[in-house]
Structure formats: C-alpha cells, structure tokens
Amino acid sequence: MKLLVSALEHSANVHLTSLTKEFKDDVELIGIFDKNLGNPIVDLQSLAIMGIVDALKKLRYFFKLADEMLELAQDADKVLLIDSSGFNLPLAKKIKKKYPDKEIIYYILPQAWAWKKNVYLFLLEP
C-alpha cells in the first residue's frame, strides 16, 4: 500500500514513527516525513521557518510543495496528514476536490491550551 504522508514537524514524525511500527501490511511512505522513515520528497530542514519575513520568503516554495503533494496523491492508496493545519487543511481540500474517492486521514496531535488571569499560555503534549 502506498501512503502519502505530510508530517512537517518533529513531533509529527515522532508519532509517525510509532504508527509505522503498527503497520501490518507492507506500507510504502511517500511525501513529506523524516528521512529515517524512508525517502521523502524534501529535507525537513528546508521547511524550517522563523518569523514572518522567513515565512513570506518561503510562501512560493510551500505552494509548489503542495502542488507536488497533490500530484503524488494520484498514486497513493491513502493520505495521512499529521498536524500542521496551515499546510495540511488546504492540501486536504485540494486532494478531496481532485480525487473525491481518496481516503484522507487527518491526525491531530494531542494538545491542551489553558489561559490564566495574566495571560500565561501553556502547551501540553505527551
């Protein structure tokens, strides 16, 4: 089975590594993920962004990357999108529009947000 994966962040790849250990069938990963899990289409280091200026500079790159993922979806049996909603939700919409019968799994990592009186923000992940 070919599984198109979009795991852009380190935490997503930690969960993906655990998932791959549970696969019973022969699963080939294609797409964006840590190079320790196979042969991704990009190096995760090239996706690192720091600040708004860096994000604006890489905007065209991310649009091209989404188009490449859309084309890879044609040959995939299933699509697994992990977190990174800014990239993955628009990608899911494009895939669903072009390939309406394609199964898309959107895996959101567990998070809890809490606000205190003085606007302290905490992010808890397992």
Plain-language structure description:
- It is a single chain.
- The two termini are 29 Å apart.
- This protein is α/β, with parallel strands linked by helices.
- It has one domain.
- It is globular and about 45 Å long.
- The strands form 2 sheets. A 4-stranded parallel β-sheet has the order 2-1-3-4. The protein has a two-stranded antiparallel ribbon with strand order 5-6.
- Helix 4 links the parallel strand 3 and strand 4.
- Helix content is 39%, strand content 22%.
- The longest helix has 15 residues, at 59-73.
Question: What are its keywords?
Answer:
single chain, 126 residues, alpha/beta, two-stranded antiparallel sheet, 4 helices, disordered C terminus
